[in-house]
Amino acid sequence: MTTTPGPRARGATVWLTGLPSAGKTTIARHLGARLAAEGHRVEILDGDEIRRFLSAGLGFSRADRNTNVQRIGLVSEVLARNGVLSVVPVIAPYADSREAVRKRHEASATPYVEVHVATPVEVCGERDVKGLYARQAAGRLTGLTGVDDPYEPPADPDLVLTTQAQTPEESADAVYAVLAERGLV
């Protein structure tokens, strides 16, 4: 017997890309809580958690970063294709890696929303949630995305968030509005 998914069973991937300490995870948590409260199936695929478990052993070379992004993209696409709103707060510094994830979603006709959390590096450095910018400034860390390792901003994201000018709740509301406009919530 085949059943038709209910109104809350439409899946999609919401990919939040931006520099470290831009606010990606905070926005994802606010958005995820709102979606869950409305009865949506939602999963947050946090970049740090994925790196610890699914991508354990990968470093931070371009190839390893690409592998990490592709793994996360696969998991997210599978979840989204199966009715889950998958919220992905992951730096994903390279445009070609993000484009490959987008194409994977297009190939399976799975909705994909790319959000650029466009917080300036100076603001991220002030927030420095994990102490990365301080470690880099002290010479104890190299390869920090956006400082001494590249970050390629999305050329045509579905939404740009300037988190230094709005609260995390306002940022999450803006993402929600895009989902609503597309009939995904």
Structure description:
The chain has 185 residues and is an alpha/beta fold. It is 44% helix and 13% strand. Strands 2-3-1-4-5 form a five-stranded parallel beta sheet, sandwiched between helices. Helix 1 (24-37) packs across helix 7 (168-181) and helix 3 (62-81) packs parallel to helix 4 (95-107). Mean pLDDT is 92; it is low at 1-8.
* β-strand number: 5
The helix-strand sequence is EHEHHEHEHHEH
Major sheet: order of its strands?
A: 2-3-1-4-5
Shape: globular
Estimate percent helicity. 40-55%
By secondary-structure content and strand pairing, the structural class works out as: alpha/beta
Largest sheet, strands/sense/barrel: 5 strands, parallel
Strand content is 5-15%
Key features of this structure:
single chain, 185 residues, alpha/beta, 5-stranded parallel beta sheet, 5 strands, 13% strand, globular, disordered N terminus
The gist of it:
By secondary structure, this protein is α/β, with parallel strands linked by helices. It is 44% helix and 13% strand.
